[in-house]
Every structure is written in structure tokens, then in C-alpha cells.
Amino acid sequence: MNTKFKIAAAQLSPIFLNKEQTVAKACEAIQEAGKKGAKLIVFPEAFISGYPDWVWLIPNSKGADLNELYLKLVENAISIPDDMTNKLCKAAKKAGINVVIGIHERNTETSNTSLYNSLLFISDIGTILGKHRKLIPTGGERLIWAQGDGSSLRSYETAIGKIAGLICWENLMPLARNAIYESGTQILASPTWDKSANWLQSMQHIAREGGFFVISTCMALRLDDIPEEFQFKNLYPEGREWINVGNSCIIGPKGQIMTGPLEAQEGILYAEIDLQDIIKAKRMFDVVGHYSRPDVFQFSIKSTP
Predict the structure, then answer these.
(1) How many domains does the chain have?
(2) Does 44 sit behind a cis peptide bond, omega within 30 degrees of 0 on the bond before it?
């Protein structure tokens, strides 16, 4: 059984608040990664169709401005499934690659007007494996996204091993991580908006703690990527070029950075991995195996939606 694969982190900018063009760009990246032999590609948090950075700039008292931005955000959000997910699935199947992509997801089960910060998992044969909704939006994000639940704290069996995902700062939640560890995860997709050195240190710790590979993918976004119609771009300091420089990377099960971080540019990072390195890493420390103490600690998840 093959244990060696190539995986990819897509540090790209979306076509801001334009889902059709952003999905087209994602499909191009999927094809590119597939041609280069990658068997998994991970896109940034909220890639379709852009991180709502205005939550950190516009006070909630500016209701009229926020209403217009929210309307645009919902109009360019994704339903699962819809025409946009169909295009992504076709691209994944054509390229023969697994895809994990950050999206704004509409709550189609009820009103269709609230949003989740979600990850969409697509197999290399073009089927939707599932989704994960971010448990807790951070700070100003709570004005945009609803809270996810425990039903999606799991891993998905693929041709290259078990893949799971945690979004941005929910990676810092010890119990969320433990749920992912117990699901047998071998590759963790960690899309984020956090580009900081502290974040990279956390990613290295989590890779070592979980004894698996981590793909930390952050959006590279310039001020010029925001169309002039969105006035909030004028709230940034004069002369600012980058809203987010990215710093995406791929990390091995001993906490070592295998490729990256990629700073202040768009690009797709690649790394060759061997799943047997996970076994080697867990010889001394297996957090949910021989180093666990179920006789001392009890852990459970409320897994119903």
C-alpha cells in the first residue's frame, strides 16, 4: 500500500465577493496541483468569496454599511450542494485530487440567510465527503457567522489517509483537537486568517501533539484586491499594501516545517509526505494511544447536529 504522497497548500487571493470568478480561480488551482502530482490541496479560510475583514474596521453602530456588505456576502456564499460545488467537484475529479476549501456557507436547512464559516471536503473522484462548520467565530467575526456543532468534528477516509479540518482559532481549543485526534486523523487542514509567528508556533505544536501532518493555509490579500466599490478599504492606514501576507506552510508530525512559510505573494506550496512518518512520530508519544489515560480522563462529544 502506497504511503507516500504530494500535498499542497494554496495561498491564493479570492476574487473578492465574486463567487463565480473565485470558484473559477479555485478550479484552475486544482488542475495545476493535480498536474504536479498533488493528491490533496487545501485552500484558505473563507476563500469563497473572501474574508470579511471589515468586521475589524466598521463599528456595529454603522448598521446601514454593514447591511449592504452582509447582503453582498450572502449573495456570494455557497449552498451545499449547488452549481458552485458541482464545479469544484468536477475539477477535483478531473484532476484526481482531494480538495479542502474554505467557504461562506448558507444555512439552507432553515432560513437560507445566515452564514457559517465552513470547510468543504471533496474526494478525488469528485464526491462531497462532508463539511465542517467553525465552532466559534472569533471577536468581530461573531457579527457574521453562526456557530457550528459537534457533528462535523471527524475525519474523512480518502485514498491518501484520514483527513480532518479545524478552522483558524478553533485549532487552539484543546477539546476540539482531541476530537480530531480520536478520529484517527493523519492530515489536518487548518485554514486560517492568522499569519502571526504565534500561529505558526501553535501549528508546529499541534502537528507534534497530534503526530500528524498539518496544512496551514492563509489567504494572501492585497488592498488592491478589494474593489473600489467597497468603501471600507479606505479605513486602512495610508500606504498599506497587504491586508494579509499569508505565511502558509506545511508541517510534519514531529513539528518540523516542511515547506513555507510563504510571505506576501500568491502561490501553491507542495510537500512530499510519508504516512509511515506518523507511526514513527507516535512511538514515543501517541496522545490518544499509549499516552492517553482513559482510566483517569473521560472525553465525549455531542455529535448530533
Answers:
(1) 1
(2) no
